[in-house]
Amino acid sequence: MLNTSFASSRRWFFKLAGAAALAPSFRQSALTRTDAAEEPKPRGLPPLKITEVRVIVTCPDRNYVLVKILTSEAGLYGVGDATLNGRELAVAEDLEKHIAPLLVGRDPEEIEDTWQYLYRGPYWRGGPIQMTALAGVDQALWDIKGKRAGMPVYQLLGGRTRQGALAYTHASGRDFAEVEDAARRALERGFKAVRAQVAIPGLEGTYGTPGRKSSEETAGRVAQQSGLPSTEIFEPAPYLRTVPKLFEHLRVKLGEEVELLHDVHERLAPIEAARLARELEPYHLFFLEDPLRPEDKQGFRLIREHSTTPIAMGELFDSLWDCLPLISQQLIDFIRCDLDHIGGITAARKIAALAEFYQVKTAWHGPGDISPPTHAANVHVDISIPNFGIQEMVFFPDVAREVLPGGTTFKDGYMDVDRTPGLGTDLNEEAAKKYPYRRSYLPTARRKDGSMQDW
Ligand code: KDG
Ligand code: MG
Description:
- The chain has helices at 4-20, 24-38, 88-103, 111-120, 128-149, 153-156, 176-188, 216-219, 236-254, 270-279, 299-306, 320-328, 344-357, 372-382, 398-403, 429-433, and strands at residues 50-58, 64-71, 77-81, 165-173, 193-198, 225-226, 231-233, 259-263, 287-289, 311-313, 334-335, 361-362, 391-392, 409-411, 414-416, 440-441, 444-446, 452-453.
- It is an alpha/beta fold.
- It has 2 domains: 50-150, Enolase-like, domain 1, CATH 3.30.390.10; 156-453, Enolase-like C-terminal domain (TIM Barrel), CATH 3.20.20.
- Strands 4, 5, 8, 9, 10, 11, 12, 13, 14 and 15 form a 10-stranded mixed beta sheet that branches. Strands 1-2-3 form a 3-stranded antiparallel beta sheet. Strands 7-17-18 form a 3-stranded mixed beta sheet, with no helix packed on it.
- Strand 9, helix 11 (299-306) and strand 10 (311-313) form a beta-alpha-beta unit.
- The longest helix is centred in the first third of the chain and has 22 residues, at 128-149.
- The protein is globular.
- The protein binds 2-keto-3-deoxygluconate and magnesium ion (MG).
- Residues 85, 223, 263, 265, 315, 365, 367, 369, 392, 442 line the site of 2-keto-3-deoxygluconate.
- 2-keto-3-deoxygluconate (KDG) binds next to loops.
């Protein structure tokens, strides 16, 4: 790292070395003139240091872990999201006990170097807890850089490439008619793209469906369970029979224009996913999301060999290297990492750049269990890259907005951010105190015979 005293002594060295090459009679006056005319006035912004790292765990409807990084410039701080659903306290502890001491005293402007330091420095690299903690720090540092520059983060990333980010919301129901109603409500609200999930007859609880409640807005939050994890039952056979019929129903009732999406949520085996993708072809999905477990990169080839349904993958990835084979072998069409679990904006812009070479588009994860700074980070990247695809979004309840004001906007089916410097979100620490952490877990899933199933 280049500190200012080293930088200025280096400038002196070059000046003196240059002068020494000149004739002796000239040397003295050259030196004098250089001193008088070229002694640099301080340029740019003064040096900056991280003075404090605060970790705030709060539950304004859902548990969120926030990182607030304060700096040596009065009033200049950044806020990032480091929420990992069901393991919130592990990330908070990592941040507080292991990461904060490494950050205090560092230059917050050196985002890439800090990323490398936190990723490679501990020797033990990666994993969802470390990568979520790193994402929180990364987002806060981009927030600081933007505020300091007086620019929204998308400007620092190269400026706008589009007027807004096409968004999709969730429509779910206990039967096809309920899903259709939810989708119609979404369309009335301006959405052009809708993710559809339906309860599977005969199975207890289905991912992404409302249970007793029925609304596209609660669907994003259905995973939030208090106490111990609930158990859902999954069987591939009825699921595979039901889903194509749901999309047949939706196409007949809603027409061709609306973009339809579906989330498999990593629950199928490769041959099952290949069958589903093929049987969905007539309904022209925008994409079929997360068909396979994150470990099974090879399985995507089987899906590809059998279907032209576009495939999206990535919300469970916590390493840039997870994305590499799927993108470079063109086994997917959309990469949908979570900017809160993959290492923040610094990671996302590299993934997006890699994807650009292979005609893969982005579709960053945007559920209700990650907080507004991540949603804002999503959109700053979305509107500044050439290969944006679509953006998942939820509407946050008022309590969450009270704790984390600002952030993204939604109009006529598109998300956006305004010109507020930084990420454009803030943290109300006093409000956060009113909503203490509540232990909660995601549901788990089992097969009918009692064996474990991916949820
Ligand atoms: O915490 C898990 C949720 O974020 C996940 O279940 C949501 O799959 C999801 C999605 O696509 O939004
Ligand atoms: Mg998903």
